[in-house]
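Quarterly update, task 2.4: fe (ii) ion-bound model.
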Amino acid sequence: MNTSNPDFLPLNGTDYVEFYVGNAKQAAHYYQTAFGFQPLAYAGLETGLTDRTSYVLQQGKIRFILTTALVPDSEIGEHVKQHGDGVKVVALWVDDSRKAFEETTSRGAKPYLQPTVQSDANGEVVLSGIHIYGETVHIFVERKNYKGVFLPGYVKWEPEYQPTDVGLKYVDHMVGNVDWGQMNIWTEFYANVMGFKQLISFDDTDISTEYTALMSKVMSNNNGYIKFPINEPAKGKKKSQIEEYVDYYKGSGVQHVAMATDNIMFTVGELRKRGVEFLTVPETYYETVTERVGLIEEDLKVLQNLGVLIDRDDEGYLLQLFTKPVEDRPTVFFEIIQRKGAKSFGKGNFKALFESIEREQARRGTL
Ligand code: FE2
């Protein structure tokens, strides 16, 4: 950072990701059992809430909140009705929530939550929020004066059932799917309103198969801790997975959360044992992958058995794998990623992946 171009929105990282879901109790069980998340905090009827219940789970630095409505007429219930289970909040950890709110709203962000102080015996937090694409929001979390387990209003959640973790460490990036023609609107929003820079751009000639295509740009904040690729559908002979998402999500929203591990073979092996379903890759992928990516440290046979994909850029390589959607609508899914020097996002795998996704789409009759 230089003084002529100061970072007006310094971000320390992702604070949490909040999902609005139909049944938070069952979703929490799934994220514990299948993904190895650890119980952290709870809020609901027992803590004085009357309209919602939230479970907070953590693994490494990744925190998920699973929130459901307890009453028929609520913003949460309406969100679930429209979108199915999905991401409502991408919370960003800041040192000064009031300043984050002022800097972004003065540049055109639509306010979602005016700066609000919440406190309990463990101190206080300041929360503020702005709208982003679709019905998704950013909350700016200032927690430097708070010592509690999560946020005021939450109590420690200590169930007897505590499956072990699977080695997930932090949120590597989070991808937004936006509606037709909206990619540049939202990349400009991240540039102008939040001070992000564009990392990489590729167009539909890069990412297309015989049938479907997408366009994507990657926006990153000043210190690189926060990376948001933004996708929009592109015209192909058939419906792309982005268009399918937008159709079923009823608009723009978070497509996937990429979670980093430093041992993808262990992590993916565990996830598979616990019932997480991944996209399959064509067998032919591994016949040609070495020509594309060169030598890697891992045993290719082991990666093939786990279905892990490989890509390389100027700085190194990466290992990655994508789950199938984790709800019945073909919308939100997860990526597991291990970086070995590469800072890119697996562009070389997109074609192989798209062909895999199209096979799934064909089965759903939505291609
Ligand atoms: Fe990704």
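Highlight for this quarter: Residues 173, 175, 256, 258, 335, 345 surround fe (ii) ion (CB under 6 Å).
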